[in-house]
Design goal:
Blueprint: H1 16-22, H2 30-48, H3 61-77, E1 90-97, H4 100-108, E2 119-124, E3 129-136, E4 140-150, E5 155-166, E6 171-174, E7 179-187, E8 191-196, E9 201-206
Antiparallel strand pairs: 1-2, 1-9, 2-3, 3-4, 4-5, 5-6, 5-7, 7-8, 8-9
C-alpha cells in the first residue's frame, strides 16, 4: 500500500431625561462587530496554531476548553449571519478538528508506510455536493462523497453516498455510510468554523487550489 500511495405617522416622543440618557449609550455598528469578529478570529487562530491539526489538543483538556470557548465567542458574534450561500462553496483545508476519525488517520498514516497530506472539504452548494478528502502524497487519496441540502441560514444536512480509496494505479470503492448535519458558525474570506451533529468542531481555511476527483 505504501508504494501505491506514491456562509406621515407621528414620531415617538420620549421624556428629555430618557433621550438624554440614551444619547450616552454606546452605539453598535457593523464596523465594530466586524472588528470584534476579526479580533476573535485572530485569537482563535493563535490558540490552534501549535496544535498539529488537533492531535496535541486530544491530550490537553484545558487547551480544548480554551479553543471551544473562543469558537463559541466567535459564533455569538456571527449568529445572525448567513453561511450557507455560495460563499460556502470552496476547497477548504483543515487547520484543526476534534473529529477522532480524521485525527486517527493523520496520526497513524505512517504505519502504512505513508503520511497524511492536506485534509480537505470540497463543497459545491449549487451542485449540492461535498467531498471529504484525505490526501497521501504523492498519489494516494481517500475521499467520501456526500449529497447536501441547505437547511437554514447556517445549517447544512448531508448524506454520505460513497467512498473511495485510490492509489496511483488502483482504486477500491467502499460502501456509503452515515448522514447528519453541520452548522457553519463563522465564515469569511479566509476561514470557516463548524460544529456538527456529534458536537465535533472543525476549523478550515480556503485552500490555495481547487481539488477535483
Amino acid at each position: 500500500m505504501a508504494k501505491s500511495l506514491s456562509l406621515p405617522s407621528l414620531p415617538f416622543i420620549f421624556p428629555s431625561s430618557i433621550t438624554s440618557h440614551l444619547s450616552h449609550l454606546p452605539k453598535i455598528s457593523c464596523s465594530s462587530i466586524s472588528f470584534q469578529s476579526q479580533s476573535a478570529k485572530r485569537q482563535l487562530l493563535t490558540l490552534i496554531s501549535d496544535q498539529q491539526r488537533g492531535l496535541k489538543t486530544q491530550k490537553n483538556p484545558q487547551k480544548l476548553a480554551s479553543i471551544v470557548k473562543s469558537i463559541d465567542h466567535l459564533a455569538s458574534l456571527g449568529r445572525n449571519s448567513v453561511t450557507t450561500d455560495d460563499s460556502l462553496s470552496a476547497t477548504w483545508r483543515l487547520l484543526w478538528t476534534t473529529e477522532k476519525e480524521q485525527l486517527f488517520i493523520i496520526e497513524k498514516a505512517h504505519l502504512f508506510g505513508t503520511r497524511a497530506g492536506d485534509v480537505l472539504q470540497v463543497i459545491d452548494v449549487e451542485k449540492k455536493s461535498l467531498n471529504n478528502v484525505i490526501t497521501f502524497p504523492p498519489d494516494g487519496v481517500f475521499f467520501v462523497r456526500s449529497n447536501i441540502e441547505v437547511a437554514s441560514s447556517q445549517r447544512v444536512n448531508f448524506r454520505f453516498t460513497s467512498a473511495v480509496l485510490r492509489g496511483k494505479n488502483w482504486e477500491i470503492p467502499l460502501p456509503p455510510f452515515g448522514q447528519g448535519w453541520f452548522d457553519t458558525v463563522y465564515l469569511d474570506d479566509e476561514i470557516r468554523v463548524v460544529k456538527d451533529i456529534r458536537g465535533d468542531y472543525l476549523i478550515v481555511e480556503r485552500a490555495p487550489y481547487s481539488w477535483t476527483e
